[in-house]
Amino acid sequence: MVDNTDAARLVQLNAELHDAIKAIRPNHEALALMRRHDAFFTAMRIAWGYSDYRPQQIAAEHRRLLAAFRRNDGALAEQICREHIANAMEDLVRLWHEAGRQ
User: Fold this and answer.
1) What is the pLDDT of residues 24-55, one digit of tens each?
2) How many structural domains comprise the chain?
3) What predicted TM-score, i.e. pTM, was given to this entire model?
4) Rounded to whole angstroms, how far apart are CA atoms 44 and 8?
C-alpha cells in the first residue's frame, strides 16, 4: 500500500527506483533527459505533494514498467514511461490549478 501522507518519502522512493532503472543499461542521452525530468518533478512534488489518487497510480505504473523490463519489451516500457510522465504532468497541473483557487 502506498500512503500519500509523506510526500518527501514518496519522492525518495521514486528517486531510488529511477536510479535503479538508470543503472540497468546506462544511456547518456536518456540519463540527461531523466535528470532534467527528475529535478523538475522533485521540486514540484516537494512543494505541492501528490493528489490523493497519484501514489497508487505511480505504484501501478512502476509495476507495469518492471513487468515490461522482465519481458524485455522495450516498446511497452517506452509506452509506459510516456504514460507515467503524462500522468505526472496531469497531476501537477491539477495541483497547480487547485493552488491558484485557494
Assistant:
1) 777 788 778 778 878 888 888 888 889 999 99
2) 1
3) 0.78
4) 11
Q: Which grid coordinates are listed for 11?
A: 519522492
43 occurs within a structural domain: yes
Q: Could you tell me if residue 19 is inside a domain?
A: yes
In a domain, 1, yes or no: no
Question: Is residue 2 in a domain?
Answer: no
SS (H, E, C) the chain: CCCCCCHHHHHHHHHHHHHHHHHHCCCHHHHHHHHHHHHHHHHHHHHHCCCCCHHHHHHHHHHHHHHHHHCCCHHHHHHHHHHHHHHHHHHHHHHHHHHHCC
CB half-sphere exposure, 39, CA atoms < 13 A: 5
